[in-house]
Amino acid sequence: MKCLKCGSENVNVQAVTHVKNKKHGVIYWLFIGWWLELIMWLFLTLPWLIIKIFKPKKIRSKIHSQAVCQTCGKTWRV
Ligand SMILES: [Zn+2]
How far, in Å, is the centroid of ligand 1 from the Cα of 62? Predict the structure, then answer.
């Protein structure tokens, strides 16, 4: 692989991980979150408990590779 900027062959490719943590915002909890939790606990205690235990955590991770030129320091996505 050649560097796009200086044309050097001295290029390292590395994997970069982006982690996106999807969580509800403060406004959600203020208006919906707390009473939704309350109602769910009151009326659907057992199924809600099961959902809470088995629900997968909403964490998304993306992996992409990035090239780094060792000569001029330019980085770009591959
Ligand atoms: Zn370069």
Answer: 26
CATH number of the domain enclosing 6: 2.20.25
Distance CA 50, CA 63 (A): 31
Cα dihedral 66, 67, 69, 72, rounded to 10, equals -50
Cα(40) to centroid of ligand 1, in Å?
57
The Å distance, Cα 17 to ligand 1 centre, comes to 23
Residue 66: closest CA among 19, 24, 23, 11: 11
| Tokens representing residue 3 in the block | 């560097």
Do 28 and 50 share a structural domain?
yes
pLDDT tens per residue, range 20-76 = 666 778 888 888 888 888 888 888 888 888 888 887 777 677 788 999 999 999 999
